Amino acid sequence: MTGFDLTIRGGTVASDTEVFRADVGIVGDRIVAVETGLPPGRRDIDAKNHLVLPGGVDTHCHVEQRSGMGRMGADDWYSASVSAAFGGTTTIVPFAAQHRGMSLKQAAADYAALACQKSVIDYSYHLILSETDPQTLQHDLPELIRSGITSFKVYMTYDQLKIDDYQMLDVLAVAARERALVMVHAENNDVIRWVSQRLLERGYTAPKYHGTSHVQLAETEATNRVIQLSRLFDVPVLIVHVSAREALATIQAAQKIGAQVYGETCPHYLLLTEDDMDLPGTEGAKYCCSPPLRDAAAQEALWDALRQGTLQTLSSDHAPYRYDASGKLPEGDKTTFKQIANGLPGLETRLPLLFSEGVGKNRLSIPEFVALSATNHARLYGLFPRKGLLAPGADADVAIWNPTREVTLTAGALHDQVGYTPYEGMTIKGWPETVVSAGRVIVENGRLNAARGSGRFIPRSTPMPCTTERELTPSTRFFRSLTGSKPVSL
Ligand code: DUC
Ligand code: ZN
Ligand code: ZN
After folding, report:
1. Which residues carry this modification: N6-carboxylysine (predicted)?
2. d(Cα 73, Cα 75) in Å, to the nearest integer?
3. Which range marks the domain in which residue 365 is found?
4. Separation of 319 CA from ligand 3 center, angstroms?
């Protein structure tokens, strides 16, 4: 084949199953060849001694979004997408959030307008659903799913966002009918509320009490509850940001009996612990996220779960709240654990951390890294085979990694607007030095070469978990029939 616009030459290519020597030939925005000995293109990149991997796909990040607590993140679509690109991620899927009283369709339209003006890499978005009225569930949601927004998140906690079990059943029924993937923030709201109230009454206000109030059993209980609810219709659910051992065991047990449960975790649950919330003054606020950081045993269990496939994706859950009154500390040094914005930044550090701590420390193979960083995201959320692999026909999204380059992480060197990194001073090994998005070399020699708004919206197909045809039991068939408008016979 001749006439490549770009070839990436002499590198070690990997997929989620194999590692092999090949050149990658690109025409326009697509990969057209992956084989050895390709002829020169109009431009050649020498990838000798480098790994040539699919650009990362980050399917859980918060960008230009107001939180359940009403707090605005520091990153807009421009800064977030630039930061993602520098960290080797070429597709992001954040959230268009419907807050109470808002039209879902309007929330999605407003969000789309922001994204298309600013993102420098390809993107889609999920929805966040906080209303379950007929307009939302019967009209807006099905229409948005059919337009390529094929997943959405619901919350079991946060007074301003949570849905109850009855609403959850309504939501799961629509997902089953429309073949969309439901992402769930699984924590028991009342347990957290009850414990928090008692702690505050007794003057326990420091950041570390965030961890105390988000006790592990709150995550276990909610995880189990939504899994059981999903079984009524045999509909897939994906538990986001799994942090704890018991929640993992619950997911594993449900998978064993055939429940369609998928799971995600994030770098901070693998690398940080509850001790990080226990720093002098309010410093621990930088480490408050929900669910909270756990302990070393949880970290080991999460690594195991990533290797064994209990959890399929590693997302950043980038939630960029600055360490000031706009984010983490609305009441300055008087801020209680209950007022701290929940979440950690991590779009740019997600893959370098996973590479260094995973591949570099022999916890993960290179194919496992590719699966957890890109391929599984693409499959689970309806982006495959356009994203998440290097093969003819796929989008030319490539991260060229120097596996031996050492980098010391500092907030000043990152490209988000958060102003701190939880990993300040940590030295890691391996960095995505050159990043190609839709055939454009957008990061090279530490510089960005991409215009605002040059990323594209990618309509998503039916998520893989929702495509599997399963034989329904008579009971599931019956309960599914109750979600339609036709009369059912008992
Ligand atoms: N849930 C998230 O998914 N991200 C940040 C905070 C939260 O509660
Ligand atoms: Zn969440
Ligand atoms: Zn999140």
Report:
1. 153
2. 6
3. 56-384+460-467
4. 7
